[in-house]
Amino acid sequence: MALLVQKFGGTSVGTIERIEAVADKVISYRDDGHDMVVVVSAMSGETNRLVELAKQVDAQARGRELDVLLTTGEQVTIALLAMALEKRGYPARSYTGAQAKITTDSAHNKARIKSIDHEKIADDLENGRIVVVAGFQGVDEFDNITTLGRGGSDTTGVALAAALKADECQIFTDVDGVYTTDPRVVPDARRLDTITFEEMLEMASLGSKVLQIRAVEFAQKYEVPLRVLSSFEAGDGTLITSEYGTDKTMEQALISGIAFNRDEAQLTINGVSDTPGVAYRILGPISDANIEVDMILQNVSADGTTDFTFTVHRNDFDTALGSLEQTAAQLKAREVSGNNKIVKISIVGVGMRSHAGIASRMFEILANEGINILMISTSEIKISVVVDEKYLELGVRALHEGFDLRTRS
Predict the structure, then answer these.
(1) Which residues, in sequence order, are CB contacts of 204 under 8 Å at separation 6+?
(2) What pLDDT is stored for residue 242 in this prediction?
(3) Cα distance between residue 379 and residue 381, in whole Å
(4) Beta pairing class for 335-348 and 382-388
(5) Which of the listed residues 49, 86, 126, 367 has the most CB atoms within 10 Å of its CB?
(6) DSSP letters spanning 236-266
């Protein structure tokens, strides 16, 4: 039938009962005639427990030995799941990242996959076995164990699907797909049947936590169809591909979803000289402090000075503000100010490419709710605005209704 790579996260394998349930789910696909590769995370909470153990020994624990420790979490899960499959009469074989020959670079705690030698896995599939692989981990060219960092198990699943030329990579989570926005904010948010890689990348980068950006980037690069499914209930989930679904065409003024990010902070430096290099002099020290800048706005005044505003992660606010104040003194700026009570709301949709008026409609909807826009950023398929944090839920709900994204009967 098909070759499927399925990935189950920590909550999906958080207890023995859930591991047994995952085994039953995998077998249901196997009984339909599919070849199965299963990628699993550590049991829910296990990685955090291991990190705490490391901190008890060394508060600054990192690098090679931390990777050796953390990868034991997935090793437990793959063995238990393989046992559960074998108990049910289905031949299975478990592999750590090193045994699966997932080769990475040597950047401990945040390694990137370089190659996968899938010959052993292909042999197992040929012989009718279900293959269970530890996510989140690999080995470098010097045989050092490595971990892939945040979202690593998703990336493992996609990488294996690409290497094996699987028909689909299925990511099982505690939600049943990708929604037009967070259902906890908008109860009548609609599950999307399909969404493009471009849209999913924007949604993930803007705050949607269903999938990690790295995994979506990998899937797009190697054209691996991704499907988000629930571990706990049946359903078709959401398919993420480079193609449009049958209900999507470039002729529709379509907004696929609304993303938001609560972790924003805004900084402004007023009255600096409008000369070449001033942006670098402002942002250079911020970059040197390893702080990522998101949105940037520069206004030139009639007196030849410029006001420069940018946003950073809220956790970096104090450090960035201190750096900006030092820069302001050097540039003889008029004023420095900051605001860590802001949020970013974004609308995402490929329909923006072929339809005018979407931005003005967004601004009209927010204006009708009395929501003032502090900053605006756009791309081909995204419009983001910064607003006061007290307007987050009101803004998201108003936009969701205004663009008619509600559940369809």
Answers:
(1) 210, 211, 212, 213, 216
(2) 83
(3) 6
(4) antiparallel
(5) 86
(6) --EEEESSPPTT--TTS----EEEEEEEEEE
Q: Is residue 357 predicted with pLDDT exceeding 60?
A: yes
Question: Is residue 206 over pLDDT 80?
Answer: no
* Single pTM value for the model: 0.81
Q: What are phi and psi of 308, to 5 degrees?
A: -125, 120
CATH of domain 3-241: 3.40.1160.10
Spans of all domains in the chain: 3-241, 257-402
Spatial neighbors of 98 by CB under 8 A, at least 6 apart, are 137, 138, 139, 143, 145
Residue 228 DSSP code: E
Does an H or E element contain 328, and which? helix 317-331
142 C-beta neighbours (distance < 10 Å), count: 6
Q: Residue 207: CB partners within 8 Å, gap ≥ 6? A: 259, 260, 261, 262, 344, 346
Q: 63 by DSSP, 3-state: which?
A: coil
CATH topology assigned to domain 257-402: VC0802-like (3.30.2130)
